[in-house]
Design goal:
By secondary structure, this protein is an alpha/beta fold. The chain is about 35% helix and about 15% strand. The protein is built from 10 helices and 12 strands. The strands form 5 sheets. It has a 3-stranded parallel sheet, covered by helices on one side. Strands 4-7-10 form a 3-stranded antiparallel sheet. The two termini are about 15 Å apart. It binds glutamic acid.
Length: about 280
């Protein structure tokens, strides 16, 4: 079976063995007749650095990977993401949230026993009930705000039973409500991982999304966004995560395990392949 797959790293550090495992897995799933895309997810401009971007190209080429040109660089497409946000606003599904992290923590503590989702406590909904006038006044006054998805409204508009097919786990029923009123854009980053990834996978015709099990829950939300926006639904394969001898996941902070440090120590690409077999 052939597929259009994509590896989508963020240039916020050097690639490590876990990335190599993901990238090699992704290219393999594309198959010989498929297409393997590389996408640079650099929407958080405060954390991305140009030297990490050039290192991504260099390290992946060293591994023997080849990808299609042009590479989609997300920071070149903020206007696209704004259009998607505008569509959701027109559908009545986004609202401005003026709460700071501290406000939210205080409200969550006040409620006690607040429901939690994959990213921690769910937003308690404080700004959902602001009047149109209050929203307009606070925006006019220059208050900073994020845009949140009205989850209940979104689920209502999307309709019943959202499903996707996961190659590792079979048919999945999406339960996006686990995220509550999730943030889809912030003032300093005028989009979000969830919005840009869902949009780009559709735009680029990706037919099989491969990524680590750590992002499994995100797919519940992405499936909802696809439905709301009339996007194609790809298949998914959430693969296992590579762990070190200590059983812990490889992370960017584990500098000894970057691909470049391994290369300097004389490790070869076939040895990396050998170390990074995933299912
Ligand atoms: N950019 C994400 C990361 O570096 C991966 C996104 C995805 O594969 O959906 O973890």
């Amino acid at each position: 079976m052939t597929a259009i797959t994509r590896f989508a790293p963020s240039p916020t550090g050097y690639l490590h063995l876990g990335h190599a495992a993901s990238a090699l897995f992704c290219a393999k799933q594309a198959g010989l007749d498929g297409r393997f895309l590389l996408r640079i997810e650099d929407i958080d401009q405060t954390r991305c650095r140009p030297e990490f971007l050039s290192a991504i190209y260099e390290d992946l080429a060293w591994l023997g990977l080849r990808w299609e040109d042009p590479v989609r660089i997300q920071s070149d497409h903020f206007a696209d993401y704004q259009n998607v946000l505008d569509r959701l606003t027109e559908m009545g599904l986004l609202y401005p949230c003026f709460c700071t992290r501290k406000d939210i923590q205080a409200e969550v503590a006040r409620i006690g026993n607040a429901p939690h989702g994959p990213d921690g406590a769910l937003y308690p909904g404080t700004c959902r009930h602001c009047s149109a006038t209050e929203r307009a006044e606070r925006i006019e006054a220059g208050e900073s705000y994020a845009l949140r998805l009205d989850m209940d409204g979104a689920i209502k508009q999307a309709g019943p039973e959202l499903v996707w097919f996961d190659r590792a786990l079979g048919k999945q029923i999406a339960t996006p409500q686990i995220f509550g009123d999730v943030v889809l854009a912030r003032k300093d980053t005028p989009t979000s991982y969830h919005l840009s990834v869902t949009h780009d996978d559709h735009l680029q015709g990706v037919t099989l999304v491969t990524r680590g099990q750590d992002l499994f829950f995100a797919s519940h939300l992405h499936r909802l966004l696809q439905e709301l926006l009339g996007y194609d639904v790809p298949e998914y394969h959430h693969h296992g995560l590579l762990t070190g001898a200590d059983g812990k996941r490889f992370a960017k902070r584990d500098k000894s395990k970057t691909l470049r440090s391994m290369r300097e120590d004389g490790t070869t690409p076939p040895q990396v392949s050998e170390l990074t077999q995933l299912t």
